[in-house]
């Protein structure tokens, strides 16, 4: 009896060890590469993945592919998406048919790439925070062709009228403060800065609407609030500066030329033709509070990322229709914060 | 699966070798050893309720590791989170964070109260006699930060007259040497050791574009001095005084992609300790300990655009009195009180002070039952109450039980509550536009329970045969609430709060087999351990950098004069995103070592060992984007001079 007990216990311990060893085999993950003709592509910052919403079917696929460390931007150009990974010093080129990486642009060690903008199908510009420069990239070879010095802390970039407009955030890391925010204007024929415009504190994002370039200044996260600047690309001068009265996060422009700006309190909106606030910081669209990245589809629907930075797993992609109503909510992955739409 | 097969094949070969070839004491973990940390008094490792391991003086001496982190990384007893040579290396036990493991030197805590964790890379081995590792919550005995367990490092004692000198030469410019000397007389004894280790650590690694580069600025230079004087001329009393100095200057290479070629880190530690132990009557003794520990750390990185120059100084003063009542009885009681004052002077959090007052008590209740299948029962109730000047800690209770069914089977179980103190960084990080500390933080709380069985079979084979088998397995579960986590609040300002919930549970299995041959009871020693860890965050996902499966094993064959050792460590996939979307691949690393020793004139022994670390040149990382060296050769020469005590 005693021997049976002894052997049973010894056997159980050895079995635990053996089962553990067998369990050492890892399951391989597989990507479900499903993308529709009309899709939203979401960057999940903390999960470091790409999620895909098939807009037609209303189906969200999370963590479809891995992106790099500290993803900061996604832009769609043609049938490819370009994901800028600050921590990996690269830009992943993603084939939107297979949703797999099809190429990689290396911006170089310690460059800290932040945003990308396209001149045409041959050339793109990538802002590099750590080198205070913007890299001109040949899209056919994926190689950097020129390093163009700009201002301090380059972040957002937009292309209009064959010129690239680079937001210089002027963040002073040592003193934890912001210098004078500027926009460097790069002539794409020479790849040189031809003009520098003064804007507000901490310009972080830029986008193009026709011949206008919109610059979103975030402020200093304390006593200086955000501002929206509108630059006329024909004269390279600031035509409007609109006080936002709050700290903005991201922005996008609807087909009706209304800029929707995400904030902690909700979505605010500015008519970019008149410069009039449609929803100001005191009466934001609260259904979309805490949003960050935002993008519009051609039908006027907005796709808004709301990341759960508390890490509770409540990361969402919200859909707002043209009448500014919340029409759908999709669960996203950790740190869903940047979105781009292809339709 | 391929990794599993290679592991099984390797272990099979190890066992076959043992059968074909079928050391004095085991060079490995001596399970019969004495342990101090479990009860604060000397106990047999078989007579404590906690799950514990001991790394012996001999194993430490034979190892070519340069610091505690490297040594512990060669086993699977502790999981080491290593940023590379000369950089931070910290420990995790049972899925804990490194701030939830309390590291002690001779019972003195060395966790940095500013950052919370202990950097094992800057603890030299030259003055270390043994290392005790206790898994599971221990706040009832040791107070804050002992959620995952404790690592107690014991320094050398002048317990015999001897002198050792040694030198290591290895790959990537490794050069080290050291000596220690002990003199023991009837009334006065002393020990002294020094060591110096330097390395270029310019090993090759592969970056994310597949290019093979050379790691730069991972060099280090470490020096240590240690001295201890023991006076035992008093009647029933011992007085000892020890002092240590440590200095290191290391590069800080940064991670793959963001290199910091000119960053450097300097660490300096000075420590002075006085102990007085008195036994006025046979059933009662007391010990008074006082120490002052000063640490200095400066990190300089001129790399644009994130240059930094930070200096952190800590000055810790502590006094403790511990009593030991009813010694040598079946119901001994250990109790004590201590006061600690810590001054932090930091460029990050400015000048801060923390004072702690604690009282603790632990009793052993031993009962001989002497039934056929129930021999003894021991119960270990314990509590500790801590009062901190800057937050509320309160009471930490614990209850352990140990049942010897007979000479072979032992059952163990423990239940208790532990906590981790909020670090001073968490509490006092200066408020800026983007970050702010939270002075209202509470400690992280944990409730842990474990239960295990151990089998110990001892035999005396006539010729070749198994002389000892010891197998043990333990189930553990640890729930952590009020976990401190930095998250962005309103306006995007990052601040810490008590929001995290974590559950760690799993099974630890370990085995030790000794095979006798040529009249040497442990001519072959085989040690193996396996840990299954299910460590869940509030998303229900595995915690970052916690392998679900990890295996460690060592086979040592030979005598004192000629021996061979093979060891391996396996870790399964380790996720480095909270959502488990990205991971480090599993790895298995093998080390081989051959050593020989010869006696000269009966008083001197000279030895040589050759170690091949990471023998199959495995490219692996323990922290994402911080590469570790591939294959390394290390040659060790030593001489031991032993004389009779005067």
Q: Can you tag this structure with a few keywords?
A:
heterodimer, A: 343 residues, mainly beta, four-stranded antiparallel β-sheet, 1 helix, 30 strands, 6% helix, globular, B: 646 residues, 22-stranded antiparallel barrel, five-stranded mixed β-sheet, 40 strands, 59% strand
Q: What percentage of amino acids of chain A are in beta strands?
A: over 45%
Indicate the structural class of chain B: mainly beta
The biggest chain-chain interface is:
A-B, 53 and 58 residues
- Main sheet characteristics of chain A: 4 strands, antiparallel
Please sum up the structure shown.
The complex is a heterodimer of chains A (343) and B (646). Chain A is mainly beta and 343 residues long.
Task: Give an overview in words.
The complex is a heterodimer of chains A (343) and B (646). With 343 residues, chain A is mainly β. In chain A, 6% of the residues lie in helices and 51% in strands. Chain A has one helix and 30 strands. Chain A is globular, with a radius of gyration of 23 Å. Residues 22-33 of chain A have low confidence and may be disordered. With 646 residues, chain B is mainly β. Chain B has five helices and 40 strands. Chain B has a 22-stranded antiparallel β-barrel. The longest helix of chain B has 20 residues, at 2-21. The termini of chain B are far apart. The model of chain B is unreliable at 7-32 (pLDDT under 50). Classes of the chains: A mainly beta (343), B mainly beta (646). Chains A and B meet through α1 of A and α1, β18, β29, β30 and β31 of B.
